[in-house]
């Protein structure tokens, strides 16, 4: 320890002068201890006054992001930093963003695969019947329903969006994160929704998809049932047997009917997503997880893909509905979750015409066929 005293006197100063000089002493850190000496008067000479440790090495979560000290907290550049606050900010996101025709996942991903010429599964009739041959499609999206946007919303954020830690109750099958949840992230069903409460976040700079199921924020902290992160430049699937924010272990956003595709570009270039009320305790790729309790082979496994029959006449439908029906002929739709039979998923938008979308109800289960499935995994 060294104490530097600067004196203008050549001779020993008086007691009062010495006290004044000590109060202006330059302080030097005690090596190895992180403490500094700050005597305010001669009476305090030699007495140590401890200063607080920098917040990046005090063992506390000072910015309440679930991360503590350097190097674990990205807000800390070194152990000497006196703030854990992340340099990134909550810059907000664009709800229902136009993706400008860019495909989610590579062109050879199953979601983007043209299955119009694939053979029909030998058990197609029984599988279709189990969901309902005479049950019509139902657009589970549109403008508003019971005071909240109708559908599964999504938000696009920049790469510098501040990230948050999320606590999961299905932690063993969730990606740890953190997740870039903006303050304006829409929750499925609204803030007071009692349904699945999905949050879908697209990092458009890093082309990464973050999805949460049963997301809630309380006392500044996020919790969720499960969460999944997808690299949209990769075809990598979830680990075998893992769920996602969806029961089948699939991503949700790639299977939604979106306004920017249907109306703005008049083309959907990917498969869609639907639900069935009773499913088999099994799954088929690209699904990785089941949500059923029965083993009947005539029940649909998660990941089963259906397509609208090629000879189904779409000419009598509105132009926007025809866009959806053409996609169902070319790309089909994946069974992704338990829910009402033949409910097809989409993103909410105040510009939809609910009356127009209701035309889908005249398309019945018997108008679909199951494409040939690969290996069915039973758990």
Written account of the structure:
- This protein has helices at 15-23, 124-131, 259-264, 319-330, 354-357; strands spanning 94-95, 138-140, 144-145, 148-149, 155-157, 166-168, 199-203, 208-213, 216-218, 221-224, 226-231, 272-276, 282-284, 305-308, 333-338, 343-345, 368-370, 376-378.
- By secondary structure, the protein is an alpha+beta fold.
- The strands form five sheets. Strands 2-16-12-15-14-17 form a six-stranded mixed sheet. A five-stranded mixed sheet has the order 1-5-7-8-11, with no helix packed on it. A three-stranded mixed sheet has the order 6-10-9, with no helix packed on it.
- The termini are far apart.
Rg (C-alpha, Å): 30 Å
State the order of secondary-structure elements, H for helix, E for strand: HEHEEEEEEEEEEHEEEHEEHEE
Number of domains: 3
Strand order of the largest sheet: 2-16-12-15-14-17
**Helical run tally:** 5
Mean pLDDT: 87
Roughly how much helix do the residues carry, as a percent range? 10-25%
Task: Sketch the major β-sheet.
Answer: 6 strands, mixed
Shape: globular
Number of strands: 18
Give the low-confidence spans. Answer: 1-46
First-residue to last-residue Cα separation: 67 Å
Q: Determine the strand fraction and express it as a percent band.
A: 15-25%
Going by helix content, strand content and strand pairing, the class is: alpha+beta
